[in-house]
User: What shape does this take?
Amino acid sequence: MNMKVDLCGVTLNNPVMTASGTFGSGAEYAEFVDLNKLGAVVTKGVANVPWPGNPTPRVAEVYGGMLNAVGLQNPGIDLFVERDIPFLKQFDTKIMVNVCGHSTEEYIEVVERLRDQPVDLLEINISCPNVKEGGIAFGQDPKAVEAITKEMKKHAAQPVIMKLSPNVTDITEMARAAEAGGADGLSLINTITGMKIDINRQKFVLANKTGGMSGPAIHPVAVRMVYQTAQAVSIPIVGMGGIMNAEDAIEMILAGATAVSVGTANFTNPHVTEEIVAGIRDYMERYQVADIKDLVGAVHE
Amino acid sequence: MNMKVDLCGVTLNNPVMTASGTFGSGAEYAEFVDLNKLGAVVTKGVANVPWPGNPTPRVAEVYGGMLNAVGLQNPGIDLFVERDIPFLKQFDTKIMVNVCGHSTEEYIEVVERLRDQPVDLLEINISCPNVKEGGIAFGQDPKAVEAITKEMKKHAAQPVIMKLSPNVTDITEMARAAEAGGADGLSLINTITGMKIDINRQKFVLANKTGGMSGPAIHPVAVRMVYQTAQAVSIPIVGMGGIMNAEDAIEMILAGATAVSVGTANFTNPHVTEEIVAGIRDYMERYQVADIKDLVGAVHE
Amino acid sequence: MAEKFEETAIIIRQEEIADDIYSMWLHTDQIAAHAKAGQFVSVYCNDGSRLLPRPISICEIDKKDGAIRLVYRVAGKGTAEFSGMHTGAQLRIVGPLGNGFPKKEKKAFLIGGGIGIPPMLQLAKELNCEKQIVLGFRDELFLMDEFKKQGKVYVATEDGSAGTEGNVLDAIRENGLDAEIIYACGPMPMLRALKEYAEKNHIECWISMEERMACGIGACLACVCQSKEKDAHSNVKNKRICKEGPVFRAEEVEF
Amino acid sequence: MAEKFEETAIIIRQEEIADDIYSMWLHTDQIAAHAKAGQFVSVYCNDGSRLLPRPISICEIDKKDGAIRLVYRVAGKGTAEFSGMHTGAQLRIVGPLGNGFPKKEKKAFLIGGGIGIPPMLQLAKELNCEKQIVLGFRDELFLMDEFKKQGKVYVATEDGSAGTEGNVLDAIRENGLDAEIIYACGPMPMLRALKEYAEKNHIECWISMEERMACGIGACLACVCQSKEKDAHSNVKNKRICKEGPVFRAEEVEF
Ligand SMILES: Cc1cc2nc3c(=O)[nH]c(=O)nc-3n(C[C@H](O)[C@H](O)[C@H](O)COP(=O)(O)OP(=O)(O)OC[C@H]3O[C@@H](n4cnc5c(N)ncnc54)[C@H](O)[C@@H]3O)c2cc1C
Ligand SMILES: Cc1cc2nc3c(=O)[nH]c(=O)nc-3n(C[C@H](O)[C@H](O)[C@H](O)COP(=O)(O)OP(=O)(O)OC[C@H]3O[C@@H](n4cnc5c(N)ncnc54)[C@H](O)[C@@H]3O)c2cc1C
Ligand SMILES: Cc1cc2nc3c(=O)[nH]c(=O)nc-3n(C[C@H](O)[C@H](O)[C@H](O)COP(=O)(O)O)c2cc1C
Ligand SMILES: Cc1cc2nc3c(=O)[nH]c(=O)nc-3n(C[C@H](O)[C@H](O)[C@H](O)COP(=O)(O)O)c2cc1C
Ligand code: FES
Ligand code: FES
Assistant: This one.
């Protein structure tokens, strides 16, 4: 039984990864899960310099999910390279670095800096709804998506996976634009913009007013978008959004994802990533699936 | 204490309405709630001729919500005018008729047919994700939104409320287009397109593959869109999406909705609409709100 | 118009009567008082992540003590939740829903297949006629004692472990049975076969249908089945299983 | 690295000790064994609509019997759910989390305000020094018997119904108290006043902070507070309350 998948030329031991921003660089969750068991660890978004992020409150619970407006707080690429990459290199897992920036130049700086680093994959976040400049602005216009993808490909040494925003009319338009720009793969979905108001205090719950919604509440939207994207492009897809258990992960794979990322679920159950790997294995045994590749996009018309 | 609101020149006894398609034309829920207690009953979408709708399964439960792909089954305007309007006229509540069509001409035919009917408001559904033609196609392009709004205004005798789709990059663009077309008000949000796959049968759960997601899972997205729209236009907004209780309804009003519609919650609790009216009253008493209008859009910057 | 009620029912007792099949008695004043055979109730989950009702047929009604019995198979998360509940726990339910079976005084087949068996019990109790009860199980039998009190019981099992090996029609043939009317509830293939059998043999045939539901009371149009004639309510060839059904004349519906 | 555990804890007993304030003893082998004063646990709801943990401070630790005590106010839906649970029910918890209080052998103020009072109890039990316990309540007192066993207790109430009318600083002044070190937990305005008081009086001051959390273990960066110096982990002036805290030197944090 084979659980290995090929993601943009990189072989993952299994298709289960962590969703950027929910897992730090793995150190904290390493107290609960064996990182060797994961297909890849995807790091929190990192920028060319340290970012302080947004004021608090940065998170709010909503029905079946949460809102976050962390605002891409990160220690900057220098400390990241010095501390986080060596930490992750200790494990038999792949490293995907999530990259953020306010401008094309900032993205380029990070990607350049990672050229000679032992990093397997790059995930370019052009879909963060919680920063004023950069982020989502790049991800809602197909021309901008294509342009930044091209720039990333020009400067990156590792395969480039563009992370798309679900806050668009037509996800396939953005997916095609990224493919046209030369993307090696796509990650979707980032969070859906939401808002919560405290009716007793008559105030926004988040300091940032709006936040990105994640968790099982967004899962059906994510499955739909992964499915639509899989029909529209031929590059591999990393599916994410509300994956809480193996069932949700398999659903995403059947819809067309080559690998999956698990985010908010970590907050509910710090062991969840390992449990999902085991659950996918059980499913494959139960249904006698010899190779996980046979499940990718298996449900269509 | 005043709970009456003015919606496009029509005075509702209170701001609580039913969401189109979840309440039929009121006859079934009248066994559970006193329709006289509701601000308005919004009917299931009605077309110029009877529509058979989509094949079953038409609904699927998802985490914190549901998907539907009923496909606007409706008995056609003739039977509707003959049976449903007289039924609703028995009650001291307002009548908002939700209108659907495959083409501008079909919408016009319904709206024309309603000119001399004792109907208070029209809600034009240009956002149904579950029909192949018409529906959402009109609602995702600002030019189309403006054009169909103009046509509706040309032919309608009652105030025209355009119902917008959340499946867009920028809801305010659609809202402004409707306002520019002369809309008297806006309804939002319709359902968010989602998908569910049965991993054991390896099949789509819905016959239509995709369905519209509703219920509390979409509430934070709805609140955000109502808020953004309230900042962008000056016509009144009917807020909906995942309102399960008075708290959710008040949140929507604070975000900028003049009235609210309650949909999926009816399926969980057939008495919910009446309970929400009572709950809003309690809140107003607790916080000594003399006039509900003081709550509309009260939370901003 | 039949009256419907929303009640917080209390579990009187619950037991597993076969592998993954549970029997639950619920205390509910009004629903028990108004219910009849072939109707169902909407059962709500207590867990907030599951919002839609689970439609479950009424298996028995105890009007005197204001109780109903539900017998269900654990099919997914909602029924799994119910199966973990104990005496005294509360469940929100709405009912009685749907039309129920008509009751004629003709020599009858009461046919139940799998988890379609439970509603036939209350029907057997209400019917006043010659009753031949034909039950199709996968393997393990359940509710046999209860049914035996109501008439002659014929059993078919898929694995042949009891009664006729095969389906309910095999049992009818093997036992050389006949009847003037069929009342049936069970999986689609069984209902299809019975519809055909009834047509061929010119027997009146009533079947109870199943479909995914949302409102359970006729408002949302989720649960339709195709009808032969244009339906008066819908004005198209669709009938609502929760409202015009779940029981239909077999020839009225296409499936 | 302090060890953290995910456990399914079992409620040993629960009681309402004041209006809307509940005391719950949980059986948990490993967390009890590893916890110390000032740490907290993440408590998960059983209802699937609520996914994030509720951070609750550890009020008492019984290492011998493998149990911890949580005392909490019903503040919303999650704590309301907990308050309805009975002996034997299960709660998923993760802990022990955070750093906990340092323990110095100096004449100390242990200051608790409102629902910040409970964690001071375990601290009082662990501290080996002269302890002056100053507790600020809104009106109704709780945990008084337990605290009285640990040292001299001074009370302030907002409504003046017991002890000093006013806040904890009013009680300190009214009783003419002084100390070399402050350990405190409570609402922001109280912590702000104590920080100022400590600065003016050159007293070492340790405070326990609060913020909305998601992961509770330092991974998501939800729960930061502004720090005076650049933090080694974040490389910006942000410290994670769940990881570097919840207890900070007052002068280290800006709030
Ligand atoms: C009129 C009617 C009467 C029924 N009577 C019985 C009965 O007496 N005993 C019994 O065991 N089962 C009965 N069923 C089937 C029962 O409703 C489903 O098994 C149950 O809803 C499954 O819920 P779940 O949460 O365990 O499964 P899940 O798969 O987790 O449910 C997900 C959603 O799908 C719906 N669903 C899943 N399966 C069915 C189904 N077969 N029919 C309708 N909705 C479904 C659920 O209600 C829920 O909304 C009846 C169905 C209908 C329509
Ligand atoms: C380190 C720490 C220790 C705490 N110790 C205690 C204690 O011992 N006793 C006690 O009664 N309370 C304590 N609190 C506060 C407690 O966490 C909240 O009262 C509780 O989370 C409210 O949950 P709810 O579901 O009832 O409220 P809701 O408002 O329904 O909660 C919604 C969301 O907001 C979060 N939230 C709400 N209020 C707070 C808050 N004040 N702090 C952090 N998150 C919040 C919840 O965790 C949840 O994610 C502590 C908080 C922190 C950060
Ligand atoms: C607290 C938090 C922080 C996040 N930070 C990032 C980030 O830095 N970069 C990024 O691309 N996505 C970020 N995301 C989005 C997630 O990677 C993921 O796309 C999204 O949460 C949906 O998955 P989930 O529902 O499993 O959480 C963040 C999400 C959360 C909840
Ligand atoms: C079963 C179902 C049928 C619906 N039919 C219609 C419809 O006919 N016309 C329409 O404009 N919206 C329709 N909607 C959308 C609702 O009116 C509403 O916009 C949406 O469900 C969000 O509200 P809720 O979360 O409270 O259900 C339907 C929704 C559901 C669940
Ligand atoms: S379930 Fe809504 S009409 Fe039948
Ligand atoms: S709650 Fe995630 S870092 Fe503190």
